[in-house]
Amino acid sequence: MRAYRPALRTGVLIGPPLLRGPRTVHLIKHPVSGAAFEVGPKEHFVISRLDGNRTLDDVVTAYADRFHRRLPEEQWTRLLGLLGTRGLLAGSPDPAPPEPPPARANTFWKGSRRTVADAHATAGRLHRLLRPLLHPWVQLPLVAAVLVMTGAVLADPPALLDGTRELLGRPLALVPFAVFLWISVCLHELAHGIAARHYGGTVTEIGLRWRFPALMMYCTVDNYLFLPGRRAKLVVAAAGAYANLLLLLPFAVWWVPLDPADPVRPLLTGMLFVGIVQALSNLVPLPPLDGYRILGHTLDTANLAPETRTYLALRRRGRDAVAAYPPRARRLYTSYAVTAAALVLLAAAGSVTAVVLLVLD
Questions:
Q1: Which residue, 5, 100, 119, 281, is the most exposed by fewest CB within 10 angstroms?
Q2: Residue 244 burial (CB count, 10 A)
Q3: What are the pLDDT digits (tens) for 301-351?
Q4: Could you list the residue ranges that cross the membrane (predicted)?
């Protein structure tokens, strides 16, 4: 037993440390069945060293150096048995696949339907087609152009109000632009999939989802949380909003040289403003928006909103109820609760103000 050199099976995915409630956890995922489960830092320390080269004695010694205690043999046996049962050790049989959730029948009011037979292959073809444009020397000027466009458009609030009013009053321009925004939303989803493929992610499904009267595309990335490094996850999460802003650049190129007195300029101003608001609204850190995922990756947290609600519910019972939470978790969940409430109030106030100005001015 002491000379045994256990190894994880090829393809097992191990995630980074994430704060979840009072605990720090790591996600581990089976490469075939897709089953995932959580382990604590000590279990992760051991599992991450099962490379087939280290003996159990080697891992026990490293464990003692790190945690100042030896790992009892019964815990070894229990951990290896668990990993073997879940099919995570080299040579162990695959576990039975988890039962899929019962499929909900599509209705007129809501539902979803796959539109691509092999989503991963489709995302791969799009990635190969666009790969030359993903080079940093191409992306850096595009990022700069997007930032300049956004700053230039938002720098003149009175013009934004006039432009929005002009756009709303021109149905022949508003309807095609609404179709453009819907296409932009579809490309937003595909951008997530292409970015995930760029970093080695697996795209499992591309389709259409409807919630009457809305119809939208969706793109599901299976191993998104296991992408290497924080940067990859941040890029994938922000790719959709970035794609929306890129699609506005042709309008900006047309808008910039126009004389302020040109009758077309207010209309383009309104289009750019509405498009920028649509893109940036996805970066608000509230679920289920992309900004919520970006914040979670930045803070290395899992289920930030649900865990915040759980923490607040416990906190109402007194300090003793949250004694298990480390100081960082207490600060983080309290700060997010305050921030989320402020964002909701700010969004409501901004929407009401915008409607009043557009209708009454």
A1: 100
A2: 23
A3: 999 999 999 999 999 999 899 999 999 999 999 999 999 999 999 988 888
A4: 137-155, 167-187, 234-255, 267-286, 336-360
Helices 304-315 and 327-360: angle between axes, nearest 10 degrees: 110
The single-letter DSSP state of residue 111 is: E
**Type of residue at 7:** A
User: What is d(CA 65, CA 26) in angstroms, rounded to the nearest whole number?
Assistant: 21
Q: 145: which residues sit within 8 A by CB, 6+ positions away? A: 249, 252
- The model's pTM: 0.91
Nearest Cα neighbor of 6 from 54, 74, 61, 58 is: 54
C-alpha span between 344 and 351 (Å, rounded): 11
- Residue 169 makes CB contacts below 8 A (sequence gap 6+) with none
Question: φ and ψ at 94, to 5 degrees?
Answer: -70, 140
Q: Who's near 318: CB < 8 A, 6+ residues apart?
A: none
Three-class SS state of 77: helix
